What does this fold into?
Amino acid sequence: MTRAIVLDTGPLGMAAHPRLSGDFRKWWECLLHSNTPIFVPEIADYEVRRNLLLEDLTHSVERLNQLKETLNYLPITANVMLQAAEFWAFARRRGQLPADPKELNGDVILAAQTKQVGAVVATENVGHLSLFVEAKSWRDIAL
It folds into this structure.
C-alpha cells in the first residue's frame, strides 16, 4: 500500500471536476480502490473552492463538498500554523521562499498539514513543497 496522500490544489481541482478525464481519471480510480488514506487539506480546499465559486462552477463545488465528506479532511490547527511559520522562516533564511515575503504562502501551510499526518503530497508543484516534505507529481505516485 502506498503511503497516505495529501492532495494539493492541482489534483484536488481535477478530482472536483464532474467529468474526470485521461490519465488523471485512471490514476484517481486506482487511488480510490487502493485503500490508501487520502487527505483533503483545508488550505487546498480553500484555494480550489474560491476559484470554483468565482467561476460559478456549482457542480464542481458540489463534488468538492462530496470529496470533503468522503475523504479524510485535514483542518488548519494552531499546531499546523506554528509548523508553517517555522517552514516559512527556514525557507526565507535560505532565500528559497517561493512567494513574496508579505504573502501568507499556502505552500508552507500545506506542507505543515502534510507533516502532521506523515504523508506524501500529490502535486503539480514538487519544487516548492519538497523543501519541507515529500512531494511527488501525482503522475509519479505508483498505486
User: Anything to note?
Assistant: The beta strands are 5-7, 38-41, 72-74, 120-123, 135-137. The longest helix spans residues 78-93. The first strand starts at residue 5 and ends at 7.
